[in-house]
Design brief:
The chain has 85 residues and is an all-alpha fold. The protein contains four helices and no strands. The chain has a domain of 52 residues.
Amino acid sequence: MNVDPFTIAVPQTDLDDLQQRLAQTRWPDELPGSGWDTGSNLTYMKELVSYWHTATASDIGQREHSRFRKDPECYLRALEEQLSQ
């Protein structure tokens, strides 16, 4: 299997826009005791948005890209893991 290298290139303006939008997230009130019953859990969503808001470009994708780039067989292992689930 040939693994073609690629470069992750996300324009800084797009990352800046994402950061601004995440910083301006307006959160609804959560119904008491609803948890996941009425959609996404509010606490979970806040943690997820916090991660994306504080993540750098390297956190978002370059670290994983580097892992695959150093070990092309990692692509196959990742596919095999997905297929075996």
